[in-house]
Fold this protein.
Amino acid sequence: MVLVRSAAGLLVLTASASAWAGGLFLPGSGAISTARAGAAIASADDGEALALNPAGLAKARGTTITVSAALIRYYMEFTRAGTYDDLSDGTQPYEGQPFPTVENDPDPPLGIGSYQPIPVIAIVSDLGGRVKGLHVAAGLYAPNGYPFRDMSNGYQFQTSETGDYSAAPPPTRYDILNQESQLLLPSVAVAYRITSDLHVGARFSAGRAKAKSQLATWGTPLNVEEDVRDDTLFTAEVADGFVPMWSAGLTYRPTPWLELAAVYTSRAVIRGKGTAKSLPGPDVRNADGTPRVIGPRPDALAQCETGGTMEAQKACITVQLPMHAEVGARYKFLDNNGALRGDLELNVGWENWGQRCDFTSEGILEDPECSSPGQYLVVVDSAIYENGMPSDSPTIKTNFVNLGLQDTFSVRLGGSYLIGLDSGDPEAGRTIVLRGGVGYDTRAARENWLRSNFDGAARLTTTLGAAYRTPRFDVNIGGGLVYEGSNTNVAKCNPTPEDTRCNPDGTLTPLDDREGPDPTNPILAPEAQWENPIAGGTYKSHYLLFMLGFSTWF
């Protein structure tokens, strides 16, 4: 369906504000924590704690204002294994040639070149001490992630019978062609000092998410040749105006030199609604040979929303962001007077990407209200039109996509070293702070399930940073590399019109046993989709990070 792949863009877009990294999200939130490779749930003590661990807000000084950002660029290329199939009519010059390498070449609408700033803006206050031990905070942030894709290689989809089909189509077109997303999450939080050593906090966030996606689907049920003339180009735009989530955390200092922390972030269910447009290729035709026309489902039969038009049908998806938990321990290096000279922090995290919903043998949810991070329920109120009227058969199916995800685990080690510029005392005046960190995240995608529109690779993060701090403000900078290297999906088979099945006995592999994604076909239920692995090949990817932030307190 049109929104099957768009759901992945929405998932990126509506990411939780915790320091998620495995799956889609990079470590940290803002300049300081990102420069520590995300190892900051125990040490965060300014506005960044709003996103990392709300209990850390209780450490803020008086009223603190934080404006911070990480600038992220995702470099990714995909080389699909094999060659373009020979077409039945043998007319295209690229037949039999190796698939080209496709590079991500995005242009984020609010970016600096291809770099996207991911902000954290927060105000924290102790209310002048009116309620002893209480801190409140408000602000907005976005998760560290990069949902922008342009995997089209400049390809222009042709819909006319007289179009130019001599240009080789990108082998990523069934996964993603173009994608862009935007999100800001307004948040409020409260933190309380139960004792001088035990702090607790909670945050509530809600924002509006928007995403645009473009991809190709099979316009005919058995396009195993991957003939572009049998494709349909889909463009979708979806949004959810209210995505609530919450987080709770604590910090505990059993000794002056040791701090412990824990934080939990709830799952978030996104119910996106929007519109979908379709452009069938010239060979996408009805049984009588007339060109395929897709229009709105009659309002009386609408399953998503009424009011669709021939130009834009209504579409709905349900997707979940997983629950997440993280624990940490921080060792503080203190001088003889108890002043902080440096610290070292270890964080361990878990994300529940592997949660699944149960489906019937017809590919329908057992529980229509169920949601999971790697299975997106998709409803498009579209119908196939014949003679100007919607036809009952074939119909556009309610569908879902399986991203093949599993739970992820992360470990992060980061720290800092303080250099006092006034009398050598880092807490008495001006200070230089040096930071760094390293982290590792297990892969979110199961074996052979890596793909272009969803970053499910394992990753190694290394970061460095520095700050100039005075008694009234600090300025923070940093940079980093998130290395994912080269990863390969093994394609199980390559069906042809003469040999259409991947299994020797001619059966279709059950959905749960398939080894990678297949093209989506809007007139087939998922379990009836013909196997045609589209993600077999090699992915090479990494991120570059730059950080800049400012905080002041009074």
